[in-house]
C-alpha cells in the first residue's frame, strides 16, 4: 500500500482547485449571468442546462474508456489533464462572453460554448478523478487524498464565487458583460497553472495486471451500438423533468421498463457472448455499492447545486445586497475547507457510511431552517448557511473516496478493473445533478413569473428564492440519507477487500 506525501496530496488538490474555478465557481453564476446579463429567458436557459447533460452522458463514459486504454510514459490519466487545460481555459472565457447577436444567435452561441466547456471539463475531470484511484491502493489514504482534493476544490471555488461580483464591478466599470469576460481571462490563466502543478507533482502507482482487450477503435464502435440505451434514459428524464405532463411520464416509464428488460436479458446470457463494453457496463450494473453511489452523487449534487445556483438571486432580491453573495460564498468555502480536511478524522471515528447519513440529515435540517430567516438578519443567515455547509462539504469528499472502493469491489468480484469507467460515471452523475439543479432553479423561478430583464417580476418570485435556499434542497438531502442506509460496504469489509487485492497483485 502506498502512503502519500503531504506535497503530493496538496499537488493533487491543486487540480480540483483549477477545475472548481469552473465547476463550483463560474457555474454558480452562470444562471444569473444568462438571465440578467446575456439576456436568455429562464425557461430557455433551463432547457440549455438539461440538453447539455445529454452530451455528458455519452462523453463521460467515452472518456472513461479512452483513459483506461491510454498508455504513455506519464501514465493513463495525467496526460489528459495536461492536454485539456488550455481548452478548458478557452471555453471558460467564451462562455462568459456576450456577443452582439440576435436573440436566436445568442441562444446558438450559448449552446455551442456551453457544450464546448462541458466537453473540455470531461477531458480533464474524468481522468483527474480516476487518478485518485491509482495514486494509492490504501482506502484510508484515498479518503485523506479526497479531503485534500476537496479542500482544493473549495479554495478554487472561493476565488471565483467570493470575488467574481467585485471583479465584474471593477473590470466592467458599469458594463457587466465586459466585467465577466475580463474576469474569466484571469481565472483561465490561473486554471492552467494549477493543472500543471497536478501533472508534474503526482504519480500513478496502482497498475492492474488484468489487461483490457481490443483496440480503442473497436471499443468505441462497440460503445456506439450501446448509445441508444445510454441516451434514451437521459432523454426520458430530461423531457419528464422539463414538461411534467402525461406524455412525458408515459415515455419515461416505457423507456425504463424497456431498459430493465434489456439488462435482465443481458445478465441471463452467457458472458462470452457479450462484448467488452457490455461486460464493463454489466459489471457496473451488478456492483451494488457503485449503483448506490451513483444515486448519492445525483442527490447530493442536487442538494448542493440548487442552493449554490439560488444564492445570487437570494441576496440580490430577497436580502437586497447583491455584493453580499460574494461574501457569503467566501464564508461557505472557508468552512468547507475545514469540513473537507476533517472528513478523514470523522470517518475513522464513525465509518464512512454512518458519517454520510449523519451529515446529510444535519445539513438538511439546517438548510430547511433558512426558510424562516428574515432578510435583515444577515449574521444569522451567514451562521446557519455556514453550519449547513460544514456538513455538506464532507459529501463530495466521501463520494469520490468511496468510488475508489467501488472500483476495488468490482475487481475483487470479477477480476476486471476499469477505474476510468467507474469514475467517469461518478463525474457524469455529479454533472447531471449540477445541470438538473441549475435547470430546477430556473424552472421554479419561471413558474413564479421571473424575467431577468424585467426587474419588476422579482418581487413575486421571492417565495421561490426562499424555497430554493431551504426546503427544496433539504428534500434531496433526506432522500440521500435514506438511500445511503442500503450501502453494503462497512469498514471491515472494505479492509478485507483491500488486503485480498493487495495479495493478488503481489502474487
TrEMBL record:
<dbReference type="GO" id="GO:0005886">
    <property type="term" value="C:plasma membrane"/>
</dbReference>
<dbReference type="InterPro" id="IPR039672">
    <property type="entry name" value="MFS_2"/>
</dbReference>
<keyword id="KW-1133">Transmembrane helix</keyword>
<feature type="transmembrane region" description="Helical">
    <location>
        <begin position="421"/>
        <end position="448"/>
    </location>
</feature>
<feature type="transmembrane region" description="Helical">
    <location>
        <begin position="379"/>
        <end position="401"/>
    </location>
</feature>
<protein>
    <submittedName>
        <fullName>Transporter</fullName>
    </submittedName>
</protein>
<feature type="transmembrane region" description="Helical">
    <location>
        <begin position="355"/>
        <end position="373"/>
    </location>
</feature>
<keyword id="KW-0812">Transmembrane</keyword>
<dbReference type="GO" id="GO:0008643">
    <property type="term" value="P:carbohydrate transport"/>
</dbReference>
<comment type="similarity">
    <text>Belongs to the sodium:galactoside symporter (TC 2.A.2) family.</text>
</comment>
<feature type="transmembrane region" description="Helical">
    <location>
        <begin position="40"/>
        <end position="59"/>
    </location>
</feature>
<feature type="transmembrane region" description="Helical">
    <location>
        <begin position="325"/>
        <end position="343"/>
    </location>
</feature>
<feature type="transmembrane region" description="Helical">
    <location>
        <begin position="460"/>
        <end position="487"/>
    </location>
</feature>
<feature type="transmembrane region" description="Helical">
    <location>
        <begin position="147"/>
        <end position="168"/>
    </location>
</feature>
<feature type="transmembrane region" description="Helical">
    <location>
        <begin position="80"/>
        <end position="101"/>
    </location>
</feature>
<feature type="transmembrane region" description="Helical">
    <location>
        <begin position="180"/>
        <end position="202"/>
    </location>
</feature>
<feature type="transmembrane region" description="Helical">
    <location>
        <begin position="249"/>
        <end position="268"/>
    </location>
</feature>
<dbReference type="GO" id="GO:0015293">
    <property type="term" value="F:symporter activity"/>
</dbReference>
<dbReference type="Pfam" id="PF13347">
    <property type="entry name" value="MFS_2"/>
</dbReference>
<feature type="transmembrane region" description="Helical">
    <location>
        <begin position="289"/>
        <end position="313"/>
    </location>
</feature>
<feature type="transmembrane region" description="Helical">
    <location>
        <begin position="107"/>
        <end position="126"/>
    </location>
</feature>
<keyword id="KW-0472">Membrane</keyword>
<dbReference type="InterPro" id="IPR036259">
    <property type="entry name" value="MFS_trans_sf"/>
</dbReference>
